[in-house]
Amino acid sequence: MAKNKRRRLTTEDIVFDTINYIILTIVIIVTLYPFIHVLAVSFNDAIDTVRGGIYLFPRKFTTFNYVSILSDPEIYNATIISALRAVIGSVLNVIASIIVAYAISRRDFVLRGIVSKIFTYSMYFTSGLIPYYLLIRDLHLMNNFLVYILPGIVSAWNIMVVRSYIDGLPASLVESAKLDGASELRIIFSIIFPLSVPVLATITLFVAVGQWNSWFDTMLFCSTNPNLSTLQYELQKVLQSTQQFTQQASFDMGLRNNTNSVTPESIRAAMTIVAVVPIMLVYPFLQKYFVKGLTIGSVKG
Hints:
MetI-like; membrane; cell membrane; 0% strand; MetI-like fold; mainly alpha; Binding-protein-dependent transport systems inner membrane component; transport; 15 helices
């Protein structure tokens, strides 16, 4: 009986599966090749990289590119600052997003429509860089760690995403909790929060990556305080100093015989790997929730 129930593959099925496997293989290769290439360049001798021809494996293996980056003592403090702003910023953003999203998702909230429109308009219109800089200065957030946290606590986009997810949850759960005497905060953190883990994991990943990769705000607001420098800003300074060195140095007289040299391309490759590794370590733990969170609104029931 089992053999009879098993569907026999037709020629069309075999052709379709073969084409799918070929397409998926091509997509995997196209996706992985840039990263593998950057990894190979980061471990290849900088001067040898100038010759080109580095694809999947380093031609002259060396770790000097990483030594050049990690030898800067400010890198380690900057890494701690970047990690702190990523963790604290993500946690506070998630808490604020779910609280505000729950509030504007309630049909008995009289200002629901007005607040939703305000958040929507804020995604299309901004004041500009100069007014934003003046605001940060007037709030006395210059050279202050809070400048990394406070401006990003409330995200209109994240709030609207979480609200869309909450709208798809059964309203009877909230009504039952209210009948049992649960407060609004109890409902949020005991009912809404556990059911919203997929969407919260998605925005957590987005916020954490944004915080981790941010360096422009450091340059604007904390460049004079080395204790608040971030990893991306320090890496950016290393790249700029390397570019200046390359422009001033003579390739024939200095770089040709110097195996312990760096170039902008080699430093950039090593910087990319250093910056992306922490995110790669975190992503596998959030992947299953991330996939669910990206399908928000596709199926409701």
